[in-house]
Design goal:
Strand content: 35-45%
Radius of gyration: 22 Å
Order of helices and strands: EEEEEEEEEHEEEEHEEEEHEEEEEHHHH
Largest sheet: 8 strands, mixed
Number of domains: 3
Number of helices: 7
Structural class: mainly beta
Helix content: 10-25%
Oligomer: single chain
Shape: globular
């Protein structure tokens, strides 16, 4: 479809989809279509219609923007005379669309709690669905992988984020926060000043706001603004134990590994703050962020854009920055077999720059 420019005069609600460089993406939901819109933040009066998806007879639909803003994915469940579970991929560069069909057991797909899941997309046709409404127990997460073969199909696998032991206090939380769901990184806000953070290499680790620091200048409270008096509507069902509502004006929002905390004040004004997990350099998430920013800043953006996991990022970092002793040379040559499980594995590596 051709690109159409117009001044946005729609009264329909704009639903955020993503942001890439200077372009912000939204979509609107009507009875007939999902319409995908974009505008350059430098020219906010000039909107573009970049895609449209016909949603007739669609029972559930979820949209996500790929990290490089090349694709918009629409996962849909159509329940008419027969059940159709599919994904529409809109290519924003080549201006074409592809539809992928689910070929597995449809009864397995219907185990997904479509009422509560959120979708995010990663590189190489990888999508995830996750449920962050649970306040206790494992975090449901489904991984979707598209096949680029002529058949255009996709698979769905259930890979939940597990809990540690049977400690009820440790497994329960005030909020579940999606830090980087595609790479299976989640957090649990346990108290106004403490979070538990899950990564594949470290499992659940505790993070705290340093004792000498306060969030009073940001939110007007010492830690995250959690009201002392709050009401919880609890539900129990086959999908788990849920908090249906909480009396709090704090919410968390994620986009490609960035987490923003948003506070709605009594005067309806908003306060937002980026949440950075940087308790120590031994944190895998902190290391990932530092190396990523350093490589981008030093002109390796093209190589960084091809990276999809922590090990590949570390390999590129060693290739670019490691002092070439015999020991580090051996590590870089065999990085494909290296699985970083503990920060002590990095103590013998000399790096010729300081992380900031």
């Amino acid at each position: 479809m051709p690109i159409l420019y117009f001044e946005n005069q729609s009264t329909r609600r704009l639903i955020p989809l993503g942001i890439h460089e200077n372009t912000t993406y939204f979509y609107t939901d009507s009875n007939q279509f999902y319409e995908f819109l974009a505008f350059d933040i430098r020219f906010p009066h000039k909107w573009r219609l970049v895609g449209r998806f016909e949603r007739q007879d669609i029972s559930y639909g979820f949209s996500s923007l790929s990290p490089g803003a090349r694709y918009i994915y629409v996962l849909f469940l159509r329940m008419t005379d027969e059940v159709t579970f599919g994904i529409q991929r809109i290519d924003l560069v080549e201006r074409k669309e592809d539809e992928f069909r689910y070929t597995g057991d449809i009864s397995e797909a219907l185990r997904i709690n479509f009422e509560r899941v959120t979708m995010r997309s990663g590189p190489n046709g990888k999508l995830v669905l996750f449920d962050r409404s649970l306040v206790q127990g494992e975090i449901p997460l489904w991984t979707i992988q598209l096949s680029e073969e002529a058949s255009k199909t996709f698979t769905v696998s259930y890979n939940p984020i597990g809990v540690k032991g049977k400690n009820t206090a440790r497994n329960g939380c005030l909020f579940t926060v999606a830090v980087d769901p595609v790479n299976r990184c989640f957090a649990k806000l346990m108290s106004p000043r403490k979070m538990l953070v899950y990564t594949e290499s470290r499992m659940w680790q505790e993070y705290e706001i340093p004792p000498e620091e306060s969030l009073h200048d940001i939110f007007g409270s010492d830690g995250f603004p959690i009201e002392e008096n709050r009401a919880v509507h609890e539900t129990f069902g086959r999908h788990g134990h849920r908090a249906g509502a909480m009396q709090t004006r704090l919410t968390f929002h994620d986009l490609n590994g960035t987490v923003v905390a948003r506070m709605l004040h009594m005067d309806r004004k908003n306060t937002t703050a980026v949440v950075e997990l940087e308790c120590s350099i031994s944190s895998p998430l902190r290391m990932f962020t530092c190396f990523w920013k350093k490589l981008q800043r030093d002109g390796y953006s093209d190589e960084v854009s091809q990276i999809s996991n922590f090990t590949d990022l570390m390999k590129l970092s060693f290739d670019k920055y490691a002092v070439k002793t015999e020991e580090t040379k051996m590590v870089t040559e065999n990085m494909e077999q290296l699985e970083i499980q503990d920060s002590r594995e990095l103590e013998s590596m000399e790096m010729d720059f300081e992380l900031d």
